[in-house]
């Protein structure tokens, strides 16, 4: 049976109603109080709008690909980029991961204009600006899913600090150890996909042969790099962030979302509570299916989250408008986060979402027992 062809509906963008929120590209700079120190004194950190870094496209060698190739981002529906300044004060540290630290903030200004939802800032670790710039690109790529399946992103900002500046929560990491961590992460991802050796039937010689899967992986990586230029237009400004600068700091401004999936509660109990006390809708939308559908939304764009984990599923904000999903026809009550490991592929939606669905089932099954599992 031929592979089912799935394409975004032609009325994709018209399915999204206008919103009274501040446009996501309204700010050209951000001022952050309570994050930076200079000579042991708190100082204001000012960052300017930065350039994101496109990811290398992932070509599927199985033949199950979109007939028209990669999904192409439609023109942005946002207005022309603004030149406003967002000023915030750091409140609490919410978490820390492989790329940086997330803080909640109080918004100081602007005090007037369209509504700005509660925000968080994701601040890059030392030598991790390129990875945060890559995540920023995925938010740009998924612009029409912001407020639908993922949180809204209010910009990516950067500045190079002077020698006497200090970010208290920056990890004590050297350039050499950063490179080692990059290689370890890359090898970990490689090893999770293939064992060192595997047996495959070779139709040319008419028998099975043992192949070096790691070597094959490296060759595919080189091929991806060669073919990248055919899909993406080079952005010289963006590639400057690949340079490992000791004092380069990057900030991703995101809509603050709600809680994680409950742990140690039956799925039926969670669904009942959500239906009875929070989401007063005419028909029951099972939250498990809701989360499955989020990954299908990404799959419609040929995007795979890769880091499928309990910690990367949050409730939608109740302080900003939830848009109707153009693919599933209802408002999702959950959001996906954390896209620094995401991949852009040429796989059709069902193939792109298949792996995520299998891991989600494991996550849901273990949550009932109070066990947190994930694949990253």
Describe the SSE topology.
Blueprint: E1 27-38, E2 41-49, E3 57-58, E4 84-96, E5 100-109, E6 119-124, H1 129-141, E7 153-160, E8 165-166, H2 175-193, E9 197-202, E10 207-212, H3 213-231, H4 236-239, E11 248-255, H5 267-278, H6 287-300, E12 303-304, E13 308-309, E14 313-315, E15 334-336, E16 343-345, H7 349-367, E17 374-375
Parallel strand pairs: 1-4, 3-16
Antiparallel strand pairs: 1-2, 1-8, 2-7, 4-5, 5-6, 6-11, 7-11, 9-10, 12-16, 13-17, 14-15
Helix pairs in contact: 6-7
Structure description:
This protein has seven helices and 17 strands. By secondary structure, it is an alpha+beta fold. The strands form five sheets. A seven-stranded mixed barrel has the order 1-2-7-11-6-5-4. The longest helix is centred in the middle third of the chain and has 19 residues, at 175-193. It is globular, with a radius of gyration of 22 Å.
How would you describe this structure in keywords?
single chain, 376 residues, alpha+beta, 17 strands, 26% strand, disordered N terminus
Strand order, sheet with most strands: 1-2-7-11-6-5-4
**Low-confidence stretches at least 5 residues in length (pLDDT < 50)?**
1-18, 185-204, 227-243, 279-285
Quote the beta fraction.
Answer: 25-35%
Instruction: Name the shape in a single word.
Output: globular
User: Can you count the helices?
Assistant: 7
Major β-sheet profile: 7 strands, mixed, barrel
Q: Any idea what the radius of gyration is?
A: 22 Å
Elements, N to C (H/E): EEEEEEHEEHEEHHEHHEEEEEHE
Helix content: 25-40%
Annotation, overall tally of beta strands:
17
Mean pLDDT across residues: 75
Alpha-carbon distance between the two ends:
33 Å
What structural category do the secondary elements indicate?
Answer: alpha+beta
